[in-house]
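We were asked to recover a plausible sequence for a given structure. The inputs and outputs are reproduced exactly as logged, with field labels preserved.

PROBLEM: sequence recovery
POSITIONS: 303
GIVEN STRUCTURE:
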């Protein structure tokens, strides 16, 4: 090996060293450094605040679990967390039910226009998220589009609009469902579009009806896309704070709003806010690991 390298021309040796320098570790060095600097280090700082190693208060600080003890043994923050979990579950399940037929039509209908329809599905992303949420305030307000239509049809009087449409849990879940439908439809579409059509033909040849073929072939094979779409909605909805702030009011107040208030109000409590944030990060990490295990189990079962 040493004799061969010695006989190589200098230019060829330089090219070979350049190829070695462009190996996977060197290519991943900069992205990993960026991830460590702007993701892992901030998480470590937040974790340090949760254990009182850092604090806004002057003076010496020492490691303590007082913030975690108050959080786990108190009912205020945990009840708000479970309220947010319930709202996120309802939103995620509703969107999956709405998005699956849409993705099924786009993937399995065989139409040549499916990519045009797919473009229309993602067209709302061409506008600002904030503008789309604010548009729902115009639609759901006391003098908005929906209440004006009900007054015009005579179903409601102008003095008695449906005030529960805005600044409520219903408004938060409705707007979140509208915003996240494409995020659920796309992974389901990918799962269905990659489905081997010969499996459906084999099921039909064996005497299965379209309903039986869907329940026994299509639905099980599309479950990874369904679960991925469900998590795409559930995880960000659990920590959502922009939409509840705009259309939720007091009844639509969620866990993410509490974290923002603890960090940004006139009397901040960064220790408690950090505890809530790290707890949410732990829940999201656990869900991601469970999803990874689910995909590994599915691949082992189909492999």
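RECOVERED SEQUENCE:
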């Amino acid at each position: 090996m040493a004799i061969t390298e010695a006989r190589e021309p200098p230019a060829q040796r330089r090219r070979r060293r350049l190829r070695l320098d462009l190996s996977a570790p060197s290519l991943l060095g900069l992205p990993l450094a960026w991830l460590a600097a702007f993701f892992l280090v901030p998480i470590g700082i937040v974790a340090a605040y949760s254990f009182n190693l850092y604090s806004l208060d002057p003076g010496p600080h020492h490691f303590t679990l007082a913030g975690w003890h108050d959080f786990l043994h108190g009912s205020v923050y945990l009840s708000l967390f479970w309220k947010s979990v319930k709202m996120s579950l309802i939103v995620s399940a509703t969107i999956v039910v709405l998005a699956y037929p849409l993705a099924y039509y786009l993937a399995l209908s065989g139409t040549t226009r499916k990519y045009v329809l797919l473009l229309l599905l993602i067209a709302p992303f061409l506008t600002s998220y904030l503008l789309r949420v604010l548009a729902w305030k115009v639609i759901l307000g006391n003098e908005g589009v929906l209440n004006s239509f009900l007054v015009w049809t005579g179903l409601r009087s102008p003095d008695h609009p449906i005030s529960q449409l805005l600044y409520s849990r219903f408004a938060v879940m409705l707007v979140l469902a509208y915003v996240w439908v494409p995020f659920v439809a796309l992974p389901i579409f990918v799962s269905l579009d990659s489905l081997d059509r010969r499996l459906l033909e084999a099921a039909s040849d064996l005497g299965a009806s379209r309903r039986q073929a869907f329940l026994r072939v299509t639905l099980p094979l599309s479950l990874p896309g369904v679960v991925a779409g469900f998590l795409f909605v559930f995880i960000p909805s659990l920590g959502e704070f922009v939409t509840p702030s705009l259309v939720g009011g007091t009844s639509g107040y969620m866990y993410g709003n509490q974290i923002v208030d603890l960090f940004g109000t006139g009397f901040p409590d960064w220790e408690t806010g950090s505890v809530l944030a790290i707890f949410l990060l732990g829940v999201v990490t656990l869900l991601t690991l469970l999803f990874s295990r689910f995909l590994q189990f599915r691949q082992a079962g189909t492999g």
